[in-house]
Amino acid sequence: MTFQAETQAILAGAVGIAACIDDLRRRQISNWIPGSAFVSGLVFQTTQHGWRGAGSSLLGTLAGAGVFLIFYLLGGMGGGDVKLMAGFGALLGAKPILVAALWTAGCGGVMALAVIAVGLIRDFHRRGKPVSKEVGGSSSEAGRRADSIPYAPAIAAGVWLSLVGAT
């Protein structure tokens, strides 16, 4: 593994761990986390590749945000997730963030299936039979939070898997 790949992996690891802890604990991602990913990514790419790296970092930021922006606008994803992906885009660059987004989608799908399966098993054990539940049917904030899935772990896993595949 080269110095560049090691540095990228360490930065992505630190950002991903911080985002996962924050999202799992508070169900939101503090702005300092994607902000530090953006700044460290921009500095890293610029020092490694000059102006070309800076351009790739900025394009990666736009691509990372753009990938999940539609889901945010439709209400299926939080703004912190979009900002986190944008921050990772600055760190990875324009093309690699798209690969990471595909990995993220796969990881998110697996997480969603696991959450559904666990919910069905709990309902079955509680009531002795499966009970159908309408996801997102609650109008209260607590109901929405209970039905949502923290997505930072899927984003972090997708980024990490994309880095493994790149080496």
Protein architecture, described:
- 81% of the residues lie in helices and 0% in strands.
- It has helices at residues 3-26, 32-73, 79-92, 94-127, 141-147, 152-166.
- The protein is elongated and about 60 Å long.
- Mean pLDDT is 88; it is low at 136-144.
Brief write-up:
With 167 residues, this protein is an all-alpha fold.
Number of helices: 6
Describe the sheet with the most strands. Answer: none
> What shape does the CA trace take?
elongated
Question: What Rg do the Cα atoms give?
Answer: 17 Å
Helix % is over 70%
Which strand-content bin applies to the residues? under 5%
Unreliable stretches, pLDDT < 50, 5 or more residues? 136-144
Query: Average pLDDT across residues?
Result: 88
Task: Output the helix-strand order.
Answer: HHHHHH
Could you tell me how far the N terminus lies from the C terminus, measured between alpha carbons in angstroms? 7 Å
Structural class: mainly alpha
